[in-house]
Amino acid sequence: MSRPGPPGGGVSGRAGAGILTGSAVSLRRRAGERRGPPGGFGPEIAIAARIGLLAVATVFLQTSVVAELPVFGVRVDLTPLVVAFVGFLSGSTVGAITGFAVGLMVDLTLLQTLGLTSLIFTFIGYGAGRLREMRDPQATLMPLALGAVAALISLTGYSVMEFMLGNDAPVSIELVRQIVLGTVVDTLLAAPVWALTRRALQPRLPDDPRRRRRRAYTTGGLSPLPRP
Amino acid sequence: MYKKTIRRRRAVLAALVALSLILLTAYFREAPGGPLHSIQRGFSTVVSPVEDGANSVFRPVRNFFGSIGGALDAKSQSNRLRKQLATVRHQLIRYEAEARGYRELSALVHIDTRLSISAYQPVNATVVAQSPSLWESTVIVDQGTPSGIAVNDPVIDGEGLVGKIAQTWSDGAEVMLINDHEFGATARLAAGGAFGTVQPKVGDPDEMVLQYLPQNTPVNPGEYVETAGTVSREGQSLFPAGIPVGRVTSGGAHSQYESINVEPLVNLHNLGTVQVLTAVHGSAPERITHLLSSLASPVGSGNSSVASAGGQLATAGGEG
After folding, report:
1. For the segment B264-281, what is each residue's pLDDT rounded down to a tens digit?
2. Which of A88, A166, B120, B224 is most exposed, with minimal Cβ within 10 Å?
3. A206 CA to chain B: closest CA distance, Å?
4. Residue A153 banded pLDDT, cuts 50, 70, 90
5. Is B209 part of the contact surface with chain A (CB cutoff 8 Å)?
6. Measured distance CA(A106)–CA(A98) in Å, rounded
7. If residue B175 lies in a helix (H) or strand (E), which one and from where to where?
């Protein structure tokens, strides 16, 4: 169900937007269709449902399959990557909530100390969201850097918390090696995880600022099109 | 409007952090039978069938990637195994002679073999979930209390000791692996006979330490380490004697006691089917566990079906 266009196909919204051609109007209609019917679910519910499904699928995939496939002798952990990318795409508040929920599910599923993973993942999701809100980095390798930082915070944070909770197990230099290797492996996996997360969420997300800026640069102002 | 957004964002973060800390504190301080632990077990019961299904669906994928990793290691592993086979063959010949002598002697002095593995009732279980954490090395198996599995039961596979049962519920159980930081078991050098406590090295899932050995214990790389069949402190499981744990790799720290590094025999990264050794009601293992539990913790942790690692011995006994 498409939104009706303005009479005559012109747009008088923002300064510098210019007059839309017929193809631009059809693009706008298609963009309107992608946002869903006016009488259906709101965009907030749709994005929440997508993030919820993504979180549940990630936790089950992680605990049932990925955790049993060691790479270079370390266990791969996709959950901090997904939390960081959801935060980066959706903002700090959604990132923090997603981090808390994913962490809670991990702790509940694996019978770990309740609240520990939630606390770490909350900070990861919030931090990733704030990074976008404050800096909005556009570099191609940004997902890899973000994945590396998320994995490092997750592994280091977990170890620090375990020490703070009073575990007196003998700790070797291997712990550092495992943290470094785990970070490297997660960084390598960040690119496909980023692509999948973006693919799962982007159709329902608000406009991508990068694209909008690019259109603004080429058209001389902010484009009225939500998404080409 | 902007200030309102900032306030809302900060409020959400503060609320989530506070909730996490409350959960963490409450969970850490409550008894194993407390409400948060119950909720956790309830959640596990609910998701257990889903995990089981996901495990079955993705098993071919996992096996495929596992076989790729296995193929990469195959050549070096083959050379290493050939050398080991030669060594083991010599040892076998020697041990057969010793075993014959042992049987003759035990017949003479009526040595009791009550705690051999045959005294236990093995239950096969499939691993359905595994923790990715460096610290909490646990797996979830699909058999629980109805199969007779109880807290502290030893878990083995074809290679040797895998771990022990940490928690049970109706549809599954949590297995604490031997490289979990809370794990500890009394073990001995198979040939030398020196007793010590085998513990994991945190952060190094492929290495353990056999500690508290007498000074000047000879270190023979390649020598096997096996369970001793005794308990040295509260919280340890009574594993039957003779379950292989690992192989000595090198000497470790020297102080008042000696410690040596041990490589686990079991591949803890790729556990498929394991066996839980359950103590049959009225059997010798069950009676001895009960006796030990009464010695270790005579008051308190009574009849709860679940216990933490620290209080497992008492609970397991209380059930019997």
Report:
1. 888 887 787 888 988 766
2. A166
3. 17
4. very high
5. yes
6. 12
7. strand B173-177
